[in-house]
Amino acid sequence: MENINDNKPYNQVTEALWEFMRRLSVSNECPQFNIDNCRKSLQQKLNISNDVFDHAYEVLKDTGTFKEIKRENNVVTFKLLK
């Protein structure tokens, strides 16, 4: 089975998601985004599956890149840590 961490689409979505979150945090004290809209946008842009997006999101969260403060109705409020 292929290692998802060595997968080019996984690396691209991880970088794109981090950059998206970074840009939001520059202009907002408590940044928020709709995770479903973000997933759909990156799926169209990078031709990725839900699993790849979800894994990239969890890796960024689990490695301390950001802290998910609240999630309500698919709107995520977060704080970027790195």
Task: Lay out the secondary structure.
Elements: H1 8-27, E1 32-34, H2 35-46, H3 50-62, E2 66-72, E3 75-80
Antiparallel strand pairs: 1-3, 2-3
What do you see in this structure?
There is one protein chain. The chain has 82 residues and is α+β, with helices and mostly antiparallel strands. Helix content is 55%, strand content 20%. The chain has three helices and three strands. It has helices at residues 8-27, 35-46, 50-62; strands at residues 32-34, 66-72, 75-80. A three-stranded antiparallel β-sheet has the order 1-3-2. Helix 1 (8-27) crosses helix 3 (50-62). It is globular and about 30 Å long. The model has no long low-confidence stretch (mean pLDDT 90).
In short:
The protein is α+β, with helices and mostly antiparallel strands. Helix content is 55%, strand content 20%. The chain is globular and about 30 Å long.
Features:
alpha+beta; globular; 82 residues; 3-stranded antiparallel beta sheet; 20% strand; single chain
